[in-house]
Design goal:
alpha/beta, about 30% strand, 12 strands
Length: about 220
């Protein structure tokens, strides 16, 4: 079986070298680029994100990221968002815009707002456990492991409940805890995301990314 091709989306929001190295270590053919054809043709798309929500959305818009993600998902092509790359998949964020960035709506792949964590210590920085439900593909083999978080904001509720013909494919939502529950990961057909950094989570993160890559190969 040939190695999967993965594009790490290069849009200026994220320290992406660790992601590239980890994915290469796992055997993927990795490109760091925002070239539209490469993004659309890759077996998997890794969407990083570090910093201010609104600045990240603006940077994504500058490389047509929202459109490219939409096209990939319409064709059932795997996408993985990480940290702010997960947050931008929601409708929006309560975070204030930073510097010259204007407030932006999120990509609206999932309903809901990203809000500041209600914890005594923010940001939530360091290793923490999560609670994946049965049926998680991402967490197969690492459900009891710890992952590395660095964030002050997160989605803290989940309101997407498929009905009727879509009930059998309800998203798999994994929860974390820091001052209250928050969404730590989502698996929703071709779109997956983690609030933590799998590329900085040691062997557990490598295993999780390997699980994602297995979906890119199928």
């Amino acid at each position: 079986m040939s190695a999967p091709t993965v594009v790490v989306l290069d849009y200026g929001c994220g320290n992406v070298r660790s992601a590239v190295r980890m994915l290469e270590r796992l055997g993927a053919q990795v490109s760091l680029t925002a070239d539209p054809q490469a993004v659309l043709n890759a077996d998997g798309l890794f969407v990083p994100g570090v910093g201010n929500f609104h600045a990240c959305v603006r940077a994504l818009e500058a490389v047509e990221g929202p459109k490219l993600i939409d096209v990939r998902l319409a064709g059932a092509r795997p996408v993985l968002g990480v940290c702010v790359g997960m947050q931008v998949m929601f409708d929006g964020s309560a975070e204030e815009a930073a510097g010259p960035a204007q407030r932006r709506d999120g990509l609206g792949q999932w309903p809901g707002m990203v809000r500041r964590l209600a914890a005594d210590v923010v940001p939530h920085m360091g290793w923490n456990t999560v609670a994946p439900p049965e049926g998680s593909v991402l967490f197969a083999g690492v459900a009891d492991q710890r992952f590395y978080f660095v964030h002050s904001y997160a989605a803290q509720d989940w309101t997407l409940h498929p009905q009727g013909a879509f009930a059998a494919v309800a998203p798999v939502v994994t929860w974390g805890e820091h001052g209250g529950p928050f969404v730590a990961a989502v698996e929703n057909g071709p779109l997956s995301a983690t609030q933590f950094h799998p590329e900085k989570s040691g062997d557990a993160g490598a295993h999780l990314l390997g699980n994602w890559l297995s979906q890119c190969r199928s």
